[in-house]
Amino acid sequence: MSTAASYCNNPFRDDYIFLLTDDTGMLQHSKYGLPDPNHGYTTDDNARALIMALMLYERYRKKEYLNLACRYASFLLNAQNENGKFRNFMRYDRVWLEDEGSEDCFGRCLWALGFALSHQITPAGIKGALSYMLQKAIPHVSALHYPRSKAYSILGLAQLDNEDAKRIVSEISNSLCSQYNDYKDGEWKWFENIVAYCNYVIPWALIEAYRVTGTKSFFDIAKESLDFLSEITFKRGYFKPVGCNGWFVKRNNPAEFDEQTVEACEGVFTYLAAYEATGNINYLQKAKQCHKWYIGSNSHGISLIDNETGGCYDGLTPHGLNKNMGAESLVSYVMSYIKITGIESI
Hints:
This is Glycosyltransferase. It comes from Defluviitalea raffinosedens. One of its GO terms (biological process) is carbohydrate metabolic process. This protein is mainly alpha-helical. The protein has a domain of 104 residues. It has a two-stranded antiparallel sheet with strand order 1-2. A two-stranded antiparallel ribbon has the order 3-4. Strands 5-6 form a two-stranded antiparallel ribbon. The two termini are 27 Å apart. The N terminus is likely disordered.
C-alpha cells in the first residue's frame, strides 16, 4: 500500500462542483464523469453542499461560492413541506417523489441550517429564510428515533447560541447515551448491534454536545465509542472504513467493501473535534489519515480524485475504483479538504 505524502496530489480544483450543479441544485449521481439527470436530486446532497459552499466561501471569498450557497439553500426551502419536515428525492423535472423524506435527511438539513446560521459570512437575507425553516423543523426533533438523525440534528443545533437549542441538544444526547448503554456489551461498544453507514457522526455529535452543555457523560460515551470504531477502521495501520456490502454485524466480521467516501470525511471532522476536546495528538493524526484515504493511503493505494476536474470517485470496490462521481463523494472530499488544510499549521 502506498502512502500519500500530502493532502492534495494536485492544486485544488472546483470544476466538478459547477459541472454537477445546475439551476435547481446539485445533481445526485453521475455516469463516470458526466452528471446523470436520470437520478435527479436529493435534499441530503444539497444540505451538505450548502455546508461545503459556505466553507469554500469562507476560505477563498469567491462570489461564485456564495451564489452556490444561495442555490443550495433555496433547494432546502423548496424541500421543506408544510409541516416542517423535508422531502428528499426530486426528479430532474423538479417533481418531488415523496411527501416526506427519511429521518437522516431531516437531521442533515438541521445540520446545514445550524451551520449556515452560525456563520457570519452567511448573508442576512439567506439567514432569515434559514431561520424560518429551522423554526418549522424544530418541533419534530424530539420525535426522532434513529441515532444518525439525532446525531446530525445535534451537529446543527449545537452551533446555535441559545438556551432552547442547548436544551434540545441535551435531551437528544441523553437519548443517544441511553441507546448506547442498551447495546453496549463487553467488547461491543456501539449504539446498535451493527456498525453500518455514517458511523463517525454519532460520537462526533456527542463531543459537540459535551462542548455546549459540559455534560461529562456525553464525552465519556463519545470517547469510548470512537475508540471502539477506531480499532475497527485502523486495524491495518491505515484508514479502512467498514464496507457497505454487509456492514459489521455484531459477532461477525466487518465487510471489506465497498468503502464509501462519506466515512473518511466524517472521520476527519470527528477526530478533529476529539483533538480539540482533549489535545490528544493521536486524534489529530487519525484525522490526517482519514483525509489521506482520498489520495492514496487506502487499501488499494490509489487516489479517488479526478485530477482533470477535482471530482471524487464513488468509493473503493474489491476491484478498485467505482468510477462514477456523484454528489456525496464530491461534497465529502471538498469538505474534508477544506477542514484538514485549515489545521495544517497546528
